[in-house]
């Protein structure tokens, strides 16, 4: 999979945590009510944001997280940021033991290629599989294989912040629709798993889970980028413009849209919205 920088992941983390759908998270927590210990695998963990966004809401006072990523640099960053986030942290061999708000969390860091190794990873049979901002980057065929593997092991999945294709910009610009089409075209390109599912990922997953006898719940988790998220919005605009340009969109048009969008961030009524969906799927 194409990599993401630690700086980008740090920039988006506050918006990600604010966007997480609380109703879906509450359903996940209720499912594990009464559990003293939970084992959790986080796929494509990046810098560990998903753990920081979910662990304290889960009921178990003791948790064992295995963070999976292909990028060893991000795994090292995840260890450092989790240690800084914790109330107390100590290394025990390759494991990081942390305490946070009364929770005892053991964190293992594993490098794995999810294209080749996901069946092996799911064979570790955790209580919960989770991921954030991952499934719009994988292919529809990969999603089908992944859901089939989860179903074989009877494992639940909680995933957040999957891009769903919705974007709202104010004020409107004549090139919004064209730039958006170009961005979606770029997003569907191969990110290492075949042509990406993009904004169809959650509907594809929901259908596959339903066919496997799972109960499925989804909920909105949009970014709403106000003044406090201006730096994130600037990076997002730059990324969209770059992606659109790489599809062959007219350079003058890309530049005009980018400059107009950056200028709009200074307006008090500008609050861009980027749509995401969270999903909770568990065996019936």
Can you describe this structure?
With 284 residues, the protein is α/β, with parallel strands linked by helices. The chain has helices spanning 6-19, 22-31, 49-54, 72-85, 114-122, 140-153, 176-187, 201-211, 230-246, 251-264, and strands at residues 37-43, 62-69, 88-92, 95-100, 103-111, 128-132, 157-168, 214-220, 223-224, 273-283. Strands 1, 2, 3, 4, 5, 6, 7, 8, 9 and 10 form a ten-stranded mixed β-sheet that branches. Strand 4 and strand 5 (103-111) form a beta hairpin. Helix 6 runs parallel beside helix 8 and helix 9 packs antiparallel against helix 10. The longest helix is centred in the last third of the chain and has 17 residues, at 230-246. The two termini are 32 Å apart. The mean pLDDT is 96.
Spell out the key features of this protein.
284 residues; alpha/beta; 10-stranded mixed beta sheet; 10 helices; 43% helix; globular
Give the overall form: globular
| Total beta strand runs | 10
Structural class: alpha/beta
Q: What quaternary form is this?
A: single chain
Main sheet record: 10 strands, mixed
Q: Ends: how far apart?
A: 32 Å
* Helical percentage: 40-55%
Cα gyration radius (Å): 19 Å
The arrangement of helices and strands along the chain is HHEHEHEEEHEHEHHEEHHE
- Integer average pLDDT: 96
Low-confidence stretches: none
Strand portion, in percent?
25-35%
Report the total helices.
10
């Amino acid at each position: 999979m194409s990599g993401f920088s630690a700086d980008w992941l740090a920039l988006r983390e506050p918006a990600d945590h604010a966007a997480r759908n609380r109703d879906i998270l509450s359903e996940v927590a209720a499912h594990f009510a009464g559990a003293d210990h939970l084992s959790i695998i986080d796929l494509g963990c990046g810098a560990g944001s998903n753990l920081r966004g979910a662990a304290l809401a889960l009921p178990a006072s003791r948790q064992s997280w295995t963070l999976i990523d292909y990028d060893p640099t991000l795994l090292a960053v995840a260890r450092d940021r989790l240690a800084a986030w914790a109330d107390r942290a100590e290394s025990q061999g390759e494991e990081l033991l942390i305490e946070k708000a009364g929770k005892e969390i053991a964190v293992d860091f594993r490098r794995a290629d999810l294209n080749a190794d996901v069946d092996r990873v799911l064979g570790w049979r955790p209580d919960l599989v989770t991921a954030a901002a991952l499934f719009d980057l994988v292919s529809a065929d990969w999603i089908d294989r992944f859901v089939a593997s989860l179903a074989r092991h009877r494992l639940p999945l909680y995933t957040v912040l999957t891009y769903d294709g919705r974007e709202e910009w104010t004020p409107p610009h004549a090139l919004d629709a064209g730039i958006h089409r170009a961005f979606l075209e770029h997003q569907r390109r191969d990110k290492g798993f075949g042509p990406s599912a993009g904004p169809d990922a959650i509907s594809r997953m929901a259908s596959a889970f339903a066919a496997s006898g799972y109960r499925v719940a989804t909920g909105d988790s949009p970014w709403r980028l106000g003044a406090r998220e201006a730096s994130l919005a600037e990076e997002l605009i730059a990324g969209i413009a770059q992606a659109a340009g790489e599809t062959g969109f007219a350079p003058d048009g890309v530049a005009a849209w980018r400059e107009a969008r950056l200028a709009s961030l200074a307006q008090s009524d500008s609050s861009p919205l980027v749509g995401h969906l969270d999903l909770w799927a568990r065996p019936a």
